[in-house]
Amino acid sequence: MLTQPIRKTFDIGDGRQITIETGRLARQADGAVTVTMGNNILLATVVASKEPREGQDFFPLTVDYQEKFASAGRIPGSFFKREGRLNDYEVLISRLIDRALRPLFPEDYLCDVQVLITLISSDKEIMPDSMACLAASAALAISDVPIQEVISEVRVARIDGKFKVNPDRTELSNADLEFIIAATEKNIMMVEGQASECSEEDLIQALEIAHNAIRLQIRAQKDLWEMAGSKAKRDYTKPEQNEELKAKVKSFTEAKIYEVSKGALSKHERSDKFDEIKEALIENLRKEYNIAEGEGLDSKVEKLAKKYYHDQQYYTVRDMILNDRVRLDGRSLEDVRPLDMEVDILPSPHGSALFTRGETQSLTTVTLGTPLDELLIESAATSEYSKFILHYNFPPFSTGEVKPMRGPGRREVGHGNLAMRSLKQMMPGGDFAYTVRVVSDILESNGSSSMATVCAGSLALMDAGVPLPKHVSGVAMGLITKDGKFAVLTDILGDEDHLGDMDFKVTGTRDGICGVQMDIKVDGLPMDVMRHALEQAKRGRLHILDAMYNCLAEARSEVKPHAPRMVKMFIEREFIGAVIGPGGKVIQEMQRETGTTINIEEKNNMGEVSVFGTNKEGVERAEQWIKGIVAVPVVGDVYESTVKSIMPFGAFVEFLPGKQGLVHISEVSWKRLETLEGILKEGDKVKVKLIGTDPKSGKFKLSRKVLLPKPERQDKPLDKPAGS
Asked: Beta-carbon neighbour count of residue 409 at 10 Å?
């Protein structure tokens, strides 16, 4: 018999309730809960190994979020009809949870931990990603896995000027600001989101609203832990420490590390110098421990010495930046590395840009496609098409390494998504029918290649003739704090990336923020420090934007000659069938004759017609053809027609695509004609005027002669009288 489940229910506002339950499902896991809101149910489980693997010196946390298609009453569309590897949507949610959970574990905890969150029942209106971290944290909270704090995560959106926590899916479509925020009871831990050019103060306000909502969810988790028996956290084996060895490493390396750190060297020069110090350290320890020539240090001692050496690098560089206000490459705290950018550097892509900032470089291309190229994005509850796609590639040569190529990993998916959602804020809507694919290939990397992707992407889009109203740039920032002192770093290096207490990336235009990705590791970060950091990020962003506008001030007025031309038009719904024709005959003929691709969709009781082609004349011809089909002939208007057939009584002409009328023989010329032979023949182009319609048949009556000059009347002379 199943044990009696334990439930905690709480209200998140507007009468919306969430229930956390444990004790009924997955009871062999170290911790398992379900989180329910409406018909939406998430199952979260956590299992941790009892001991770390032998020789392991890092924390192996695995977080996977997956949606079961059965949760929405659907069968997967794949060949095997079962869920496969995580899709990009699930990877992005997994990353959000992972980034929030990772700082909760003690630094010396090295056991394997696996957190699995599964959507087992779906509600179309309730977005599960905003509750997934709550489920994961609750599973950890009731387990004996040694976490230091409880957290939660919410989505905050501004809809019609008002902030709302965890809005419904339909409400979110009207939001001009949307952030997912994770926090402990005291501290913001993670921020990710997008906005339509919001201010820094808007972001601060969203953080404060989110934090209040998160505290309520943390209280509910603690109540559930108490209701479930207040399970104590397990003891764990801590890594071996050697204080004597640590002191030796510090004594030998601290000054040397400081000298290299302030030397303003390049990435590889600095790395080589640090490696030389490490080799000298190992050799010095051999002598101190009286190890015979040709023999090496004990492997455990050597491994521990190298760990202490890397720790010493971390502390020495942090102190140098805090105290000397100088960074590894010699810059001041606010300096952006030298910028270099070019557009239109590749002949065949529809748009291209090369953006270089210091030792980080992105080669970005833009390809323009038709609606048939749209990307299908599926979750359990929704299937949506996206006409804006951004892919980010990070080959191993960009950091001078040799690694197997195994396709994009979670990092690539996450970085690409940040760039995509930032640039998407400026993408045109309405009658812009192209599907746009942006590809960023990172050729060099030493800090914030995702921000280089945003800058290069903006330049390449404008180079392709995509009508972006403004450039979008991005800058990666760092924050170091100690004993009340802090230093905010603009445009961080790769080596500075892991040093900070807050790593954050901010993208935007001159008028506001478009995207944010932020991870905060320090306890009790004051909002005043956060404001200072965001204002400094704004100055860095504006500096980069100035350089981008100097490179390309606005989008090109036309797409490249070899890019597909596009025209979008809207027709009355009743004409859709006429444009397509019986069995697609008309549209197929148009595409064949004009060399274009024509796509028709019914939207909002109108027909949306998109015409694509590489030849401008062909696109214009197809556009006129369609306009002719949907045009309503007006009596008195003049048309350029084509003779289709000659009959004894007149000529049938096509005066609009798909519309024919009769030019009676009496309407061909002012002269009386017995036959049209020698006057008109099939294929002739002739101007005609619509003079009426047959009231019975509705057929069109056309005239050629009314457009010809009417001959003057010549009276016959009177006969002369006889004999005159």
From this structure: 10
Q: Is 52 left (phi over 0), alpha (psi -120 to 50) or beta?
A: beta
Number of neighbouring beta carbons within 10 Å of residue 295: 8
Strands 659-664 and 700-703: parallel
CB 117 within 8 A of CB 439: no
Instruction: Give the pLDDT band of residue 83 (cuts 50, 70, 90).
Output: confident
Cβ contact 636:629 at 8 Å: no
CB contact at 8 A, 629 and 575? yes
3-state DSSP assignment of residue 362: strand
Cβ-count burial 492-501 (b if 16+ within 10 Å, e if not): bbbbbeebbb
**Quick check: helix, strand or coil at residue 323?**
helix
pLDDT at 208 over 60: yes
Between the CA of residue 1 and those of 7, 8, 23, 30, what are the distances in Å?
Answer: 18, 22, 12, 20
Q: Return the closest-CA partner of residue 366 out of 352, 354, 347.
A: 352
Q: pTM of the predicted model, to two decimals?
A: 0.84
Closest C-alpha to 446, from 361, 518, 503: 361
Q: What is the pLDDT of residue 724?
A: 45
Pairwise CA distance, residues 111 & 599, whole Å: 56
Task: Give which of 124, 137, 111 is closest to 50, Cα–Cα.
Answer: 111
CB of 29 closer than 8 Å to CB of 90: no
Q: What is the mean pLDDT of the chain?
A: 90
CA 576 to chain centre: 34
Backbone φ and ψ of 101, nearest 5°: -80, -35
Q: How far apart are CA 363 and CA 347, in angstroms?
A: 13
User: 240 and 299 in contact (C-beta within 8 Å)?
Assistant: no
For residue 176, pLDDT beyond 90? yes
Max CA pair span of the chain? 158
* Beta pairing, strands 606-613 & 565-572: antiparallel
* 3 state SS of 490: strand
Q: How far is CA 662 from CA 644, 651, 653, 690, 703, in A?
A: 10, 6, 6, 10, 8
pLDDT tens digits, one per residue of 534-555: 999 999 999 999 999 999 999 9
Question: Which helix (DSSP H) or strand (DSSP E) does residue 35 occupy?
Answer: strand 31-37
Rounded-to-integer distance, Cα 32 and Cα 7, Å: 12
DSSP state of 460: H
| The one-letter amino acid at 481 | T
Q: Using CA atoms, how far apart are residues 338 and 335, in angstroms rounded to an integer?
A: 9
Element of type H or E holding 621: helix 616-630
C-beta of residue 152 within 8 angstroms of C-beta of residue 217: yes
Residue of 588, 590, 586, 566 whose CA lies nearest to 578 = 586
Q: What is the pLDDT of residues 516-537, one digit of tens each?
A: 999 888 776 788 888 999 999 9
Identify the CA nearest to 90 among candidates 397, 350, 381.
381
CA distances from 120 to 71, 76, 124, 381, 513 (A): 5, 14, 13, 11, 36
pLDDT at 97 over 70: yes
Q: Which residues pair with 505 in a beta bridge?
A: 476, 517
Q: How many beta carbons lie within 10 A of that of residue 569, not counting itself? A: 15
CA dihedral sign of residues 443, 360, 407, 353: negative
What is the per-residue pLDDT for 719? 55
Residue with tokens 């001041």: 332
User: Among positive and negative, which fits the CA dihedral 306, 310, 315, 317?
Assistant: positive
Mean pLDDT (whole number) for 363-390 = 89
**Among the listed residues 335, 333, 262, the one whose alpha carbon sits nearest the alpha carbon of residue 480:** 333
* Segment (H or E) for 20: strand 16-22
3-state secondary structure of 211: helix
Angle (deg, nearest 10), helices 243-261 and 299-324: 50
The pair of three-digit structure tokens given for residue 195, joined into one six-digit string: 């906005």
